[in-house]
């Protein structure tokens, strides 16, 4: 049986810290967001460079670590251009809305258990409330307003289209994201982030595949379909590839931030990476055990006590950020109709069916047969992934090229010659005619 020595914080442990400790926690969360952006940009460029067999940033600082800082300083000294038709007030505050919401969500993320800081016994978390999960969802929803307002206030067509796409993404994937968290509420019995982490550690004693373990384990295993749907939804919520349709540089120049420059552009970039790190930390909290050590480190009795849990937490966050980068380096951008179909016709129906199955299982079987729940969850997750990646139609055999050309409707766009011999241009024909004058005499003309 696994024994955890971590002292899980409860809601009663919050609100007792002195003012300087509260300010220190808030400063830590803010600095963590800034450093996550600086290192996240470098990490993404290095990983994508490795995938594309090129070095990536490696000149400024050791291993190129200061490249992002140099780019930020360069953006700060660039000219700040204000579009003539922009709504100046909304245009100015829109990037700040996204940054503030993304950083605020970090306030309810547990970074570790109870620790002693200068003699004060305190949790490694800024604060916690009975509905902390809803606080993160509210911050995620409000952050989209920054994108929508940025696109609308720019007074340009392409940013407006990017803002409208962001609105559709919020409506489509917020529903699937919320439904996937319902399963977590059903198992943990709480909406508190610290309570959800505690529920994944010590709690009910279970017989899992014939072995006695303490606690239900990570919800990523018990609720594998919810985990897959949740992660797909947060990729859509954060506008990351392959769901970066509000930006879509191949269609909308740069989408909602086309008209932004200098520090305002840097704020938009900051909000994107802070949101990516925040949602990765949120995923770790809900499904990957939070700050608890992964197996087999759990055999060490002190793995979940003291300051060590912060290392496990940051390691899990970096792993999920790598998955974000991996998706960007491998998957092409979806078409807009594919994106909407995935959210409304796949994720939401599968989520509803899974919640009904889970409720029936807990009603009839209970936690005593959690091993069956793991098996059912993995099977349902595999079926979900197969549904997502299974080809929708069989590839049709193509006719020969010449047959395709012959079957083209009349009046369609002209094709170049099949032998690739491009006819001479009018200018070339005119030059040839001037050099070699044609015989303008008619066919009936005779020499005199």
TrEMBL record:
Question: Any stretches that span the bilayer, and where are they?
Answer: 20-43, 89-111, 131-154, 175-198, 218-236, 265-287, 307-327, 339-361, 373-390
Q: Where in the cell is it found?
A: Cell membrane; Membrane
The ranges of region (Disordered) come to 397-448
What does this gene product do? NDH-1 shuttles electrons from NADH, via FMN and iron-sulfur (Fe-S) centers, to quinones in the respiratory chain. The immediate electron acceptor for the enzyme in this species is believed to be ubiquinone. Couples the redox reaction to proton translocation (for every two electrons transferred, four hydrogen ions are translocated across the cytoplasmic membrane), and thus conserves the redox energy in a proton gradient. This subunit may bind ubiquinone.
Q: How does it assemble?
A: NDH-1 is composed of 14 different subunits. Subunits NuoA, H, J, K, L, M, N constitute the membrane sector of the complex.
Q: Which family does it belong to?
A: Belongs to the complex I subunit 1 family.
- What is this protein's record name? NADH-quinone oxidoreductase subunit H
Which species does this protein come from? Micromonospora nigra
Lineage of origin: Bacteria, Bacillati, Actinomycetota, Actinomycetes, Micromonosporales
Q: Which gene encodes it?
A: nuoH
């Amino acid at each position: 049986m696994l024994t955890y020595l971590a002292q899980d914080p409860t809601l009663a442990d919050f609100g007792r810290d002195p003012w300087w400790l509260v300010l220190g926690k808030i400063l830590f969360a803010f600095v963590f967001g800034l450093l996550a952006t600086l290192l996240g940009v470098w990490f993404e460029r290095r990983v994508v460079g490795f995938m594309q067999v090129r070095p990536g940033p490696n000149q400024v600082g050791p291993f190129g670590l200061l490249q992002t800082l140099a780019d930020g300083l360069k953006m700060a000294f660039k000219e700040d251009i204000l579009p003539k038709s922009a709504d100046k007030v909304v245009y100015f505050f829109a990037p700040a809305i996204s940054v503030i919401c993304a950083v605020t969500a970090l306030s309810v993320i547990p970074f570790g258990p109870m620790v002693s800081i200068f003699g004060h016994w305190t949790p490694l978390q800024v604060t916690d409330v009975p509905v902390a999960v809803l606080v993160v969802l509210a911050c995620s929803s409000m952050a989209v307003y920054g994108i929508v307002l940025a696109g609308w206030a720019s007074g340009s067509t392409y940013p407006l289209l990017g803002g409208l796409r962001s609105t559709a993404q919020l409506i489509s994937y917020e529903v699937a994201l919320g439904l996937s968290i319902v399963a977590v509420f059903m198992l943990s019995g709480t909406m508190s982030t610290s309570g959800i982490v505690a529920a994944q550690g010590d709690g009910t004693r279970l017989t899992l595949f014939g072995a006695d373990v303490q606690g239900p384990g990570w919800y990523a295993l018990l609720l594998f379909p919810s985990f897959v749907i949740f992660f797909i939804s947060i990729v859509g919520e954060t506008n990351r590839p392959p769901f970066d349709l509000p930006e879509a540089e191949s269609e909308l120049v740069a989408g909602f931030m086309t008209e932004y420059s200098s520090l305002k552009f840097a704020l938009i970039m900051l909000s994107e990476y802070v949101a990516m790190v925040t949602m990765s930390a949120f995923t770790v909290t809900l499904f990957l055990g939070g700050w608890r050590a992964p197996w087999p480190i759990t055999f060490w009795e002190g793995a979940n006590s003291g300051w060590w849990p912060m290392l496990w937490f940051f390691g899990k966050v970096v792993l999920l950020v790598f998955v974000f980068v991996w998706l960007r380096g491998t998957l092409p951008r979806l078409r807009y109709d594919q994106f909407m179909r995935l959210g409304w016709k796949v994720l939401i129906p599968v989520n509803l069916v899974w919640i009904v199955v889970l409720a029936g299982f807990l009603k009839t079987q209970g936690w005593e047969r959690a091993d069956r729940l793991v098996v059912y969850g993995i099977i349902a997750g595999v079926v979900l992934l197969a549904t997502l990646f299974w080809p929708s139609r069989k590839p049709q055999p193509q006719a020969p090229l010449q047959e395709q050309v012959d079957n083209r409707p009349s009046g369609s766009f002209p094709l170049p010659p099949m032998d690739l011999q491009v006819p001479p241009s009018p200018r070339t024909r005119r030059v040839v005619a001037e050099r070699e004058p044609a015989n303008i005499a008619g066919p009936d003309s005779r020499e005199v």
